[in-house]
Every structure is written in C-alpha cells, then in structure tokens.
Amino acid sequence: xxxxxxxxxxxxxxxxxxxxxxxxxxxxxxxxDTEFYIFTGSKDxxxxxxxxxxxxxxxxxxxxCHVYYRxxxxxxxxxxxxxxxxxxxLIFINGIYSxxxxxxPIWFANENRFLLSARGMLHPGALGQKRIKKxxxxxxxxxxxxxxxxxxxxxxxxxxxxxxxxxxxxFKVHIAPxxxxxxxFKFHNKQSDHLKLVTVALVSPMKNHLLVLQxxxxxxxxxxxxxxxxxxxxxxxxxxxxxxxxxxxHIQVNYKGALPPDQIEQVLHQADVFICPSRSENFGHxxxxxxxxxxxxxxxxxxxxxxxxxxxxxxxxxxxxxxLTDGIRFFAKxxxxxxQIWSASANxxxxxxxxxxxxxxxxxxxxxxxxx
Length: 372
Prior knowledge:
Layout: E1 2-6, H1 18-27, E2 35-41, E3 58-62, E4 65-70, H2 75-85, E5 90-94, H3 99-108, E6 113-117, H4 124-127, H5 131-146, E7 149-154, H6 157-167, E8 173-175, E9 194-200, H7 209-216, E10 222-228, H8 234-245, E11 251-257, H9 264-269, E12 273-276, H10 285-293, E13 297-299, E14 314-316, H11 321-332, H12 336-352, H13 356-368
Parallel strand pairs: 1-2, 1-5, 2-4, 5-6, 6-7, 7-8, 9-10, 9-12, 10-11, 12-13, 13-14
Antiparallel strand pairs: 3-4
C-alpha cells in the first residue's frame, strides 16, 4: 500500500507540537507492506529553516518512508509533479487550515481516496480561536469536501462527535488513537511545601498558561514553574510576562523555549507535576509522556485524560484560578511518601492507556477501509 501524508511540518521540525510527533510515531511503528510518502515544508513553526535536509526532492529516510521537503518549488507545481509521478492508494491530510497541505491536494487529486485528520481543530475550544476567519473558511472547505471522496480521522470518540457536529453526518469518521512515546519511569525526591511544575506545550491561549500564572500568585508554598514550548501567540505571551513580573518572590518561573524531542524526557524527570489546563485537547502527547515518566498531571475537564483523581494520577479541575490554586497547593504540600504513590499511579495510568497492537490494528483498518 502506498500512502501520501500531507502535513505542514515534519521531523526534524518539532515546534508545531503534537501532529508532528503523531506522524513520526506512526511511520516508525513497524510497517511491513506500507510505503509512506510525506509531503511537507522545509521550515519549522517559527519560520526557521530546517537543518541538514535535502529540499524539493524525495529523500528516503527509512525502509518504508520517503519525505519531500518543499522549499523553492511552488505548492501548485509540487502537487502536480507528485500526482503525475505516483499513484497513491490514500492521501492522508493532517490539519484543516492549510492552503498548500489541505486545500490543494483535495482540489487537484480528485480521483484519490482522502483521509482528513482534524487534529483537534474542530473541538469547540479550538473553534473559539480566530472565530471569524474560521466561520468564513469552513463552509468553503465543506463544499469542497462534499465533491471529493473524503473521510475523516478522529483520535477518539469525543473528536468523532465534534467532527460530525461541525461537518455533518454525511462523512465517514474513523477512530484511531495516536501512537505514543513511552518514557522511562524514575522515582525522585519531592520536598514538602515545595513543587516543581512543568508545562510542555505551544504557548497560546488554548493551553492556558496565563491561568496557571494567575493561580500561582495565590500559592504560599515555594514553586518552580518551567515553561517549555515555542511561542505561538506573541500577544498572549506578553500577558504571561506581565503576570510573571507580579508574582511573589517564592514563585520562580523559567521560560526555556522550544526543546528538541530528545530532551523532553530529561526535563520531565526533573519536575514533580505536569500542568496544562487546556481549553481543548485532542490527544496531548505531552500528557501521556508525563504520565509514563511518573508525573501526576493537573489539567482541565476538556482533555481525553479523565478521572485522574480517582486513579491518583492527577487532577481534572475546572478552569478557574481558584481551582488551579487549590490543585497546586495540594501537590506542593504533599510529602515524599504520598507523592511516590501518586507518581507510581500516574505511570500505571499512562501505561494502561497504551496498547500498541490495538493501535496498529486501528490504523490497518483505517488505511484499508472501503471508500465511501
């Protein structure tokens, strides 16, 4: 089977968050009879050029994967060339809003079977961002999709519901979870009345960093809060900086920028708790990586990671300053013995969520599904 994956950013890009990691994990999952061709850009999310890549040509990166990093070739010319050169069994489009990677392949490759992965972009929280632009764009996209052989990919039942709610019931919506990374589990010492928090995520209103900072202003324990991830919204980050400037002296906030994926495990092992009260979350690789590393997670009620307190794996909280303040205090005051129980439970929760054989079966079904 020959599958073309269209995605705006791909490895070694890493600043665009979960979709890049999802596709990298997917193509490295150990396929035997499937060839992946990935059409992507030559820059990272911040516009920086990727290093040590060959552009505007197909590069074989593994036994079953070829990547085309577009740089000087126009999108239109690249798509015409690719579709003349190859015949694909499936075109797997990742993301909703890209002209080059969503609209053009659907426009040009009208005889192909398409699979469109929404990647959380049709969740209510995501739709609330840049609402006017999306309200103009989505009806146009919907009209185009109805003229083509398009099916949707969702990572869970909640996303399947949101896709159908926004795009209608006329499309097939398949469910296949993301392939995760599993980190090593290590116990470490945690001091009472002290907490090391970490967030690994794009810095944007969706991830609610500002709410965390506002909650920290009322915490009386000593807290170190490390923020890892590229700044997607500069205006939002300025609000965060203003909040940081007014925090009391016993609250230390470190913005460490975007880190390569191979450094994330070490960062997690240096923290006590992962915090990310997202307004909307499709999957959240950072969450699962934190669980497997043994970090309890403080998050909202708007993520796929549920019943955390019952499992002693973390806290699902209302997205209010008061709720987050109480949650941070809860872990800050926790002693070493109790923390180790929660840490082990977080690891068990993460591992229990991973069944690679089941995930592989789901993708085999997804890729081999009969056309509409």
